[in-house]
Design goal:
The protein has a single domain, classed as CoaB-like (Rossmann fold, 3-Layer(aba) Sandwich). Helix content is about 30%, strand content about 20%. The chain has a five-stranded mixed sheet with strand order 3-6-7-9-10, with helices on both faces. Strands 1-2 form a two-stranded parallel ribbon. Strand 9 and strand 10 form a beta hairpin. It is globular and about 65 Å long. The termini are far apart.
Length: about 200
């Protein structure tokens, strides 16, 4: 909005960092692209790239994508941005403030369009119709797997140490998982993604 305020969400980055840790433990070369966070880089991560905007994240992913075997996009990036951010702090003058927003680039959709041999995994944070909306997103964005969770349920989604997820797959199958630690979920996500990769390259 201005040099003081911004549009954001409740994402802590913990899920993405847990996946990076789980991936590193498999022996993979892991590149972690992250937004603003105080989390420490997991041991074994080959490279960390810090970004502050959706555009910066897209640029970083685009530069690396063709050489990747797998992309797991857990980042909860903003769907919209302020069209014309103020150069100075917006002063409180009226009872109403109207902001004009424009769409950010859809990173996952663009990766799905460019996909050739990569395994592409996305996330969907929903509050209703988790499987229905998640499966629609998986198909629309040409994903191999989607991790869907109901962020309105206690113990799932943002900020906390745990998550509750349903894994959706391109073949139409699904796997509902109970509440568990985010690293435990990250390990399962990696196992399923590796299984898809192995079948594709058998």
């Amino acid at each position: 909005m201005d040099p003081v305020r911004f549009l954001g969400n409740h994402s802590s980055g913990r899920m993405g960092f847990a996946i990076a840790k789980a991936a590193a433990l498999t022996g993979a070369e892991v590149i972690l692209i992250t937004g603003a966070t105080n989390l420490e880089t997991p041991r074994g991560v080959s490279k960390r790239i810090d970004v502050t905007t959706t555009r910066e994240m897209k640029d970083a992913v685009d530069q690396l994508y063709d050489d990747c075997d797998m992309v797991i996009k857990a980042a909860a990036v903003a769907d919209y941005r302020v069209s014309c951010p103020a150069k100075n702090k917006i002063k409180k003058t009226d009872d109403r403030l109207e902001l004009k927003l424009e769409k950010n680039p859809d990173i996952l959709h663009s990766l799905g369009e460019r996909k050739h041999q990569q395994i592409l995994v996305g996330f969907a944070a929903e509050t209703t119709n988790i499987v229905e909306y998640g499966m629609a997103k998986l198909q629309k964005k040409n994903l191999d797997m989607l991790v869907a969770n109901d962020v309105s349920v206690e113990g799932a989604g943002f900020r906390g140490e745990t998550n509750i997820a349903t894994l959706l797959f391109a073949d139409g199958t699904q796997e509902a998982l109970p509440k568990m630690d985010k690293f435990e979920l990250a390990t399962i996500i990696m196992e399923r993604a590796i299984s898809i990769w192995e079948k594709r390259h058998a």
